[in-house]
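User: Modeling request: complex.
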Amino acid sequence: MNNLTDRLRINTGLARKILVSFLREEATRTGLSRAVIGLSGGIDSALSCALAAEALGPQNVLAVRMPYKTSSPQSMADAQLVIDQYHVPDKVIEITSMVDPLFEHVPEADTKRRGNAMARARMIVLYDQSAAWGGLVVGTGNKTEILLGYSTIFGDAASALNPLGDLYKTQVRQLSAAIGVPQPVIDKPPTADLWIGQTDEGELGYTYAEVDQLLYLLVDQRYSRDEVVAAGFAPAFVDRVIATIRRNQFKRMPPLIAKLSNRTVGYDFLYLRDWGS
Amino acid sequence: MTLLTLGLAQIKTKLGDVQANLDKHLAYIDQAAAQGAQLLCFPELSLTGYVLQDLAPTVAHRPTADDPVFAQLLEASRKLDVMVGFVDEDSRHRFYIAAAYLSKGQVLHVHHKVYLPTYGMFDEGRFFAWGDSIRAFDTPWGRVGMLICEDFWHASPPYLLWLDGADILLMQSASPGRGLDDGEQLGSARWVEHVGRAYASLFTNFVAHTNRAGFEDGLNFWGGSIVFDPDGEPVAHGPYFDEALTLAALDLNQLHRTRARLPILRDERTALVMRELTRIVNGD
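Assistant: Request completed. Predicted assembly structure:
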């Protein structure tokens, strides 16, 4: 598998150049020159923040921390490291008073429902700040998360521009290290911090290093199920990941529109978002 | 010594805004002329932007003097020769991805893209008609052939242009950057530079490739315009990703020297190729 680890490696200088240019050009062509980012204390939002600060100037990137009452104080502290390093303006907007009234109505809600509600409350805050600050919401979802559906639709998956969506988590780590994201943020175990003690890899049941190699072969290299098993991946692991990718396709798509007319948005009304700009 | 100062304008475009793109063309033509360029090449669909989809029929123009856009470009071509990319609408209202070569107020040639990639991220065959001819043509700088992006991902169009007398291949692209790995360049840049160099070497020709810069949604266009001489050596190389005007001084007598050393063109057996192609096509 060592060879596979090598194949996931990227030219970080090239990635940085493309992603910084992407953020600058795609933000400014909308007529805006600012960005809003939800800073969690994790590596993905730290990297998005670093790229946006380089693209638009630190003074134009608003970092918003949105803790819930059970959020780890360590997350706040780690996000502070990012704010201090990149000199971006910041805000703290607690979501406890937004979501607790909902939870009082639905006391039976399990951790998944509560986590989704928190992710969507944060989306509401970010889009409100987007209007107030005059900046686009920059996303933080990486390719591993998007393929596995490890996000909340209309929650943390919502953004205007996503610089990380074609980088596996392993590659996010490589790029973060190359551009100098604070080391404690790189080293800590990834967590959505939706409940105490949660970690991504604990919840998923495998490590990012393992699943990124499998995803790379299945998605980027178009290996079949039998070919990845022959390459050494456990059949049960492979079948579980393939089923997860398929089951979460809905999170990667806009809502389905029922076709009635001759020309329907999404089917035969086809324009890029950059139409006319 | 016959020198040709060639300019490669790797521009960013506004998607679907022909007037804004025309203004940029005219500004680049003035800039290149001021720097001594005698021929200026623009990238694929330089007047319109690349991922046109349903915009295609609304941005089409005819390469004639009575078209308001081409009237201005033809006037500008009195300063220096120009190769532009545009959407051509024929008299039967079929839309083509097209390249026009303009010189001294005249349209010397129009090429319609023959190979329309319709796979993976590409969907050109859905929106455009395919071209049906590959012809070299005479210019003040010798005989030239034009190809558009996927046209030169196939070996036959540059081969046909070579046999039809083209000593200078002008290739234009709007190539989306892809294939990031730990190499020095994107995979797409590596591939295009490999084949450009290969065509220059195999045909003992000049090969000039002009590529788009900028973004359309999440697609980056990687620039990196490049010129190879008849020995396959790079003569000029534009920056990756950024908008730029790159000038290359071509010593056209290099054709004489290279072909004196390496008479591949002299020895090419076209009748044999024709015979075997006929047999293959007939399934004999």
